[in-house]
Amino acid sequence: MKTWVRNAVFVVTLLLVLGGVAGRFVRRDRFVAPEPVRDPGHAESSVRSSARRVDEAFAAEWTRSRVTPVPLASDLTWARRLSLALTGTVPSVEEIRAFEQVNPALRTEWWVSHLLQDRRFSDYFAERLARIAVGVEGGPFIVYRRHRLVTWLSEQIHRNRPYDAIVRDLLTAEGLWTSRPQANFVTVTVDQNNEGEGPDEQKLAARVSRAFLGLRIDCVQCHDDMFGGSWKQRDFHQLAAFFACAEMSLTGVRDNEAKPYEYRYLKQKEKERVTPRVPFNAGLLPAEGPLRHRLATWVTHRDNRAFARTLVNRTWALLFNRPLHKPIDEIPLEGPFHPAMEALVEDVVASGFDLQRLIRVIAATEVFRRDSRNTDPEHPVTPEQEQHFASFPLTRLRPDQVAGAILQSASLRTIDADSPVLVRVIRHLQQNDFVKRFGDIGEDEFDGFSGTIPQRLVMMNGELVRERTKEDLLMNAATRIAAVAPDEDVAVETAYLAVLTRRPTPAEKAHFVDRLRDASGEDGKRLHRMGDLYWTLMNSTEFSWNH
Amino acid sequence: MEPLIHLPGGDGACRSAGHVSRRTLLRWGASAGLAWLTPVARMLAREAEAAPRGKPARSVIVLWMAGGPSQLESFDPHPGSAIAHGAKAIPTSQRGVQIGEALPQVAGLLSDMTLIRSVVSKEADHERAVYNMKTGYRPNPTVVHPSVGAVVCHEGEDPGMDIPRHISILPDQWPARGGYFGAEYDAFQVQDPQGPIQDVSTQVPEARREQRISDLSVVESAFARGRLPDLDRKATLHQLTMQRALNLMGSEQLAAFDVKQAPASQRAAYGDTPFGRGCLAALRLVEKGVRCVEVTLDGWDTHVNNHELQRKKLAVLDPAFAALIRDLKERGLFESTIVLCGGEFGRTPKLNPFEGRDHWPYGFTVAMAGGGIRRGHVHGATDPEGESREPKDPVRVQDLHATLLHAMGINPDKEIRTPVGRPLALSDGVVIDGLLRG
Question: How far B241 CA sits from the closest chain A CA (Å)?
Answer without folding.
Answer: 6
